[in-house]
Amino acid sequence: MKVLFVCLGNICRSPAAEGIFRSKVLENGLGDNIEMDSAGTAGYHIGEMADSRMIKHCKERGYDITPHRARQLSQKDLIEYDLILAMDRSNYSNILRLDKNSEFGGKIKMMTDFVSSMRASEVPDPYYDGPKEFHFVIDLLEDGSNNLLKYVSERL
Ligand code: 4NP
C-alpha cells in the first residue's frame, strides 16, 4: 500500500505527516508493507529540505525529517499511490484538478478524516505562525496517523 501526503509547499505539513506516519509504520513492523511519500501542489520549494522550524519541532517530538527534499505533485502520483491525503481543502481541490478524467476521486481524502480526538476540518498552514501552531499541526498529525495506520493495516 502506498500513501502520499500532500500540502502546498511540501516543506511544513506534508513532510511532517510523512515522517510521523513512517515512524508509526516502522514501530508496528509494517515497513515492508506500507510505503509513504509527500508532495506539494506548488513548485516553489522543489529540492529544498523541510522548513527549519518544522525540522526543529518534529525533532522535539521524536521525529527526524531531515532526509526530506521537497517535490511537486504530478499526475503520475494519482496513478501510483493508493491513498492521497490532503492537508487542507485548497490542497484537496488542487489535487482533484490534476484528476482530469475524474478517475481517482475515491483515493483522495482529507488527512482530518482520520483525526478523532480533536475537532478539526483541516490541518492548518503554520507557515506564518509560531511554535504553538507548529505543535498543533504535529498533534493533529499524530492523532490522524494512529487512525490512518489502523485503516491502512486493515486493507493490506
Ligand atoms: P506547507 O507550508 O504547505 O505546509 O509546506 C507552506 C510552505 C510554503 C508556503 C506556504 C505554505 N509558501 O507560500 O511558500
List the helices and strands and how they pair.
Blueprint: E1 2-7, H1 13-27, E2 35-40, H2 52-60, H3 75-80, E3 83-86, H4 89-98, E4 108-110, H5 131-153
Parallel strand pairs: 1-2, 1-3, 3-4
Can you give me a brief rundown of this structure?
With 156 residues, the chain is α/β, with parallel strands linked by helices. It has a single domain (2-153), classed as Rossmann fold, CATH 3.40.50.
Task: Explain what you see.
With 156 residues, the protein is an alpha/beta fold. It is built from 5 helices and 4 strands. The protein has helices spanning 13-27, 52-60, 75-80, 89-98, 131-153; strands at residues 2-7, 35-40, 83-86, 108-110. Strand 1, helix 1 and strand 2 (35-40) form a beta-alpha-beta unit. Helix 1 crosses helix 5 (131-153) and helix 2 (52-60) crosses helix 5 (131-153). The chain is globular, with a radius of gyration of 14 Å. It starts with a strand and ends with a helix. Bound molecules: 4-nitrophenyl phosphate. The site of 4-nitrophenyl phosphate (4NP) has 11 residues, from loops.
Top keywords for this entry?
single chain; alpha/beta; Rossmann fold; 4-stranded parallel beta sheet; binds 4-nitrophenyl phosphate
